């Protein structure tokens, strides 16, 4: 597994991370097998959120991880805060601090390596976020901070008050869902893909050394549309993925992740499989590097035209 450097830290972490949003439904034994498969295949970075499975995902992971007796400092544990599901977003100091305390308890750990603000709260008072981050850092509960689903100006607003560097921004991205890449290709045009929905977030993160963590890298778009493999709307794409998989002697999952890794933004995709075999075949993405021609072939096969 190749490593990716997180700017503004001395961290060299696995370039593929495992997201454990779906771990809540696993038995303790299944969860242990998933964690072991991730580690055996070189993953040392795990993404959580206080809300995944209503907290159950962190709980199941925390117990399994402890039972496996894996040294805490051999992995990076990241969690997220700020969503009250179905009701509101809450970036208040009180909520951020209580949320972290809950995550630490469920994960059975003393500290998080990274804490991300999960989805923008328009009622954010960045002074409060700054106070919460100061307190959490001072108490040794959180080592570093970042955001998720934020656009450039939202990050700038936080940066005006928050002292710590914002290291990470999680964005939904897959071979079929990448509005920030499309917007970059379609500058000065009037088609749908030209719409800058996220304020040039891809370029902003590159300029500011913020690591992008693509989430849901196998989903077509929104979750109702399902997984892109064997999807009837993406037959051509699946043929190209299969052709490249054969060439590199891997599975299509590895090609879909290799496509994200080939981008020079040095992204760290977060895969969400809870299947040890699928985790192993997906991690093979880190063994290969697509050519420029292949990257563009996959892009076009996803149904997008170059201007
Ligand atoms: N920041 C945010 O707002 C945000 C939002 C959503 C998610 N996330 C993070 O991103 C992580 C990944 O999200 P995700 O779980 O949606 O990622 P994903 O890797 O795109 O999807 C994983 C799901 O797809 C299934 N799958 C994968 N390949 C398949 C195949 N070939 N055939 C059938 N099913 C297949 C997996 O099933 P198996 O388990 O059977 O492999 C699993 O249920 C989450 O765990 C979370 O940490 C962040």
UniProtKB/TrEMBL annotation:
| A GO CC term attached to the entry | cytosol
Q: Where is the NADP-dependent oxidoreductase domain?
A: 15-298
Q: Does the keyword Oxidoreductase apply?
A: yes
What would be an example GO MF term here? Answer: oxidoreductase activity
UniProt EC number? 1.-.-.-
InterPro entries assigned to the protein according to its UniProt record, in alphabetical order: AKR, AKR_Detox_Biosynth, NAD(P)_OxRdtase_dom_sf, NADP_OxRdtase_dom
Oxidoreductase listed as a keyword: yes
Q: Name the enzyme group at the top EC level.
A: oxidoreductase
**Coiled-coil annotated spans:** none
The protein's UniProt keywords, in alphabetical order, are: Oxidoreductase
Q: What is this protein called?
A: Oxidoreductase YdhF
Species of the source: Jeotgalibaca dankookensis
The lineage is: Bacteria, Bacillati, Bacillota, Bacilli, Lactobacillales
UniProt lists the gene as: ydhF
